[in-house]
Specification:
16 strands, 26% helix, 333 residues, Rossmann fold, 6-stranded parallel sheet, binds NADP nicotinamide-adenine-dinucleotide phosphate, alpha/beta, 10 helices
Length: 333
């Protein structure tokens, strides 16, 4: 079977397709024939050596496919079910425990960018009935991270306003969930074309952060000087601006560090506005299942910017790294 592997050195040039042996399953495991995978910033970080992962290393956290075989102790899946991978395998429900973090798929644990994968049944969910495997391959990290931020941590309500930064996978899912809840969305991007696409998806106000350095002033203008109830922080370098755009008592869910891990930040805004700043780690399996119900009921379709085939692997990785995408980038096996 084909697998996507970082060979002997870090770097996108060293990611290749290799032949590996189809895995055999244990009693509690399911063999999945992968139909599609989606890329995350995590994959790029691993490729570039940010985690010092030992090489050669098979990549991948997000996949969806069809159940080909089930182990003798498997009870929740049947051959033919269409399933997606659950990222933090041991976070099944309730609060995240520190030991759960060691079970993150793709971080040297059960990588999934292969034609066939063998996973415990607890590491899989059935996909929403309204989605194709390619669409469902976008859910495990980006979809669930957005759901966790908007619903579980942010507790966003109809009529409230959320600020989303950039138009990548997490932000675009967050836009769709926020609109389904009846909230108002302000979204930023470095591209006016992408902002037009965001408006078509329901964004109420848009700001080009590349053209307007003090974009937080526009956020205040759009909210009559009050600020937003919730912000999903993607940059961290711009956290000071996010704080300025917040309402008294608002919540900031910190998700990404696209601008770097070290912000020159004053604490005064957080204190004066009595803000809640919440870190986030994707989500639990039970949240994944609740999200999938909501996706079905509201007929939400993940935004797949581009689908590549496995033969276009280098092109697909380069496209994702350049940040040309709006929503998600998918690779079909
Ligand atoms: N905490 C967690 O559990 C968790 C889970 C998933 C992802 N993440 C992190 O969240 C971030 C976003 O993930 P993603 O999957 O949505 O990534 P993505 O699909 O690659 O999207 C990134 C987008 O963010 C925008 N952007 C780039 N640099 C920016 C900056 N300095 N300030 C503001 N926006 C910027 C760009 O949008 P435009 O082209 O529109 O400008 C870019 O396309 C990444 O840092 C990722 O590692 C964390």
């Amino acid at each position: 079977m084909k697998s996507i592997v970082v060979k002997n050195r870090y770097g996108l040039d060293n990611v290749t397709i290799e032949e590996q042996v189809i895995p055999t399953i244990r009693a509690n495991e399911v063999l999945v024939k992968v139909q599609a995978v989606s890329f995350n910033q995590l994959d790029l970080m691993i490729v570039k050596g940010a985690f010092g992962t030992s090489l050669p290393h098979t990549l991948g956290s997000d996949a969806a496919g069809i159940v080909e075989e089930i182990g003798t102790a498997v009870t929740n899946f049947q051959v033919g079910d269409v399933v997606a991978t659950h990222f933090i395998q041991d976070w099944q429900s309730g609060d995240l425990k520190s030991e759960d973090l060691a079970s993150r798929l793709g971080t040297s644990v059960k990588e999934v960018f292969s034609e066939y994968i063998a996973l415990p049944e607890s590491s899989l969910v059935k996909i929403p009935k309204n989605l194709s495997p390619a669409e469902a391959s976008t859910l495990p990290i980006a979809g669930l991270t957005a759901w966790e931020a908007i619903v579980n941590l942010g507790k966003l309500k109809a009529g409230q306003t959320v600020l989303l930064q950039g138009t990548g996978g997490v932000s675009i899912f967050a836009l769709q969930f926020a609109k389904a809840l009846g909230a108002k969305v302000i979204i930023t991007s470095s591209s006016n074309d992408k902002l037009e696409m965001a408006k078509k998806l329901g964004a109420d106000e848009v700001i080009n952060y590349a053209e307007i350095a003090d974009w937080q002033m526009k956020v205040l203008e759009f909210t009559e000087g009050k600020g937003v109830d919730l912000a999903l922080e993607m940059s961290w370098a711009d956290m000071g601006k996010t704080i300025e755009g917040m309402k008294l008592g608002g919540k900031i869910v910190v998700i990404g560090l696209l601008g770097g891990a070290n912000a020159n930040l004053s604490v005064f805004g957080i204190l004066q506005k009595a803000l809640s700043v919440l870190g986030s780690q994707v989500g639990s399996k039970s949240s994944f299942e609740v999200m999938n119900k909501a996706i079905e009921v509201n007929n939400i379709k993940p935004v797949v910017d581009k689908e590549f085939t496995i033969n276009q692997l280098s092109e697909a990785l380069a496209y994702f790294e350049e940040g040309k995408h709006f929503g998600k980038v998918v690779l079909e096996f």
